[in-house]
Design goal:
By secondary structure, the chain is α/β, with parallel strands linked by helices. The protein is built from ten helices and twelve strands. The chain has a six-stranded parallel β-sheet, sandwiched between helices. Strands 7-6-8-9-10-12 form a six-stranded mixed β-sheet, with helices on both faces.
Length: 300
């Protein structure tokens, strides 16, 4: 939240920048509230320092505050920044602002999740494959026919759609039975409450795939309270430090690691390349890794 309050000061300062390009990273949520976005910010700023450009990071108060992100981007366009790396809270709602930036001659790339504007490159995780990695892990861990559930993210985003879709494809292919698919909007508290509801209706559930670690950790809390944690395998997505600690403690079983520092750093590099007249590939995959107790120490 503090970062959002400082946003106006940061934007006002842009008019005084004369010699350096100023690239903006527009994240979905404040880095102070989510280790993933904190790492994206770290990677972006490190790349900016390497390239000798200024990097300003802004974010709405939450990943569902679409109008706040739109307002921030409209301010950035008016400030004539040098480029925008955008993680869209809602691809369709952000599309007109992206078009406005391009019309103003400001390069734009999407980071973390795709937008709906054609011809704008995406730097991020192949979330469909990441969802399949998580799903296949549960397939190997559970007997065929076991009941499983999916905690979805915000389903207006490509991340939410692809992660849940990849896991669902894997479950269907291996014969696991999906008995519940509900959104918990990337939120830990909602992950807890949604899991409680799923458990009430499906007492024989054996596996949960949560589309991010916040929701997975909420699911773990619900399972603990119901004395079912030892009976249910929980797999998350992001492999953030809290999730790594949970895996090492024998609570969560696995997570799919992204490379958020790469997402931020590659995003700034792509903007610098576009500003220099270079071509950027339509998709730059920043990589995924399955994290279990064997390698979780590296993610703490």
């Amino acid at each position: 939240m503090k970062k959002l309050l400082l946003c106006g000061i940061a934007l006002a300062a842009l008019t005084g920048v004369a010699n350096a390009d100023t690239f903006v990273v527009s994240m979905k949520g404040p880095g102070g509230g989510n280790p993933f976005w904190a790492a994206v910010e770290e990677g972006a700023k490190a790349k900016g320092k390497e390239l000798g450009v200024d990097v300003v990071v802004v974010a709405p108060p939450s990943e569902t505050d679409v109008q706040a992100q739109i307002a921030q981007l409209e301010d950035l366009i008016a400030q004539k920044v040098s480029g925008i790396a955008l993680a869209p809270t809602d691809p369709n709602a952000l599309a007109p602002v992206v078009d406005a930036a391009k019309e103003a001659g400001i390069p734009v790339v999407f980071i973390d999740g795709a937008g709906s504007n054609p011809g704008v490159s995406l730097i991020g995780t192949n979330n469909l494959e990441g969802g399949k990695i998580a799903g296949n892990f549960l397939c190997k861990s559970l007997p065929q026919g076991s009941e499983v559930a999916i905690l979805q993210g915000i389903m207006s985003t490509t991340n939410g759609i692809d992660r849940a879709g990849g896991a669902s494809e894997a479950f269907k292919a291996c014969g696991l039975k999906v008995v519940a698919e509900q959104t918990a909007e990337w939120d830990r508290a909602k992950g807890l409450s949604v899991t409680e509801s799923i458990l009430a209706g499906n007492p024989n559930i054996k596996g949960i795939f949560a589309s991010n670690d916040n929701m997975a950790l909420g699911a773990v809390e619900a399972l603990k309270a119901a004395a079912k944690l030892k009976d249910v395998t929980v797999v998350g997505f992001d492999a953030n430090p809290d999730a790594a600690a949970s895996i090492l403690a024998g609570e969560m079983t696995a997570s799919v690691a992204q490379a958020p520092k790469n997402i931020g750093g590659f995003g700034i590099q792509a903007l610098a390349d576009l500003k220099a007249g270079k071509t950027v590939p339509p998709m730059i995959d920043t990589g995924t890794t399955l994290v279990t107790k064997e390698n979780a120490e590296a993610y703490k």
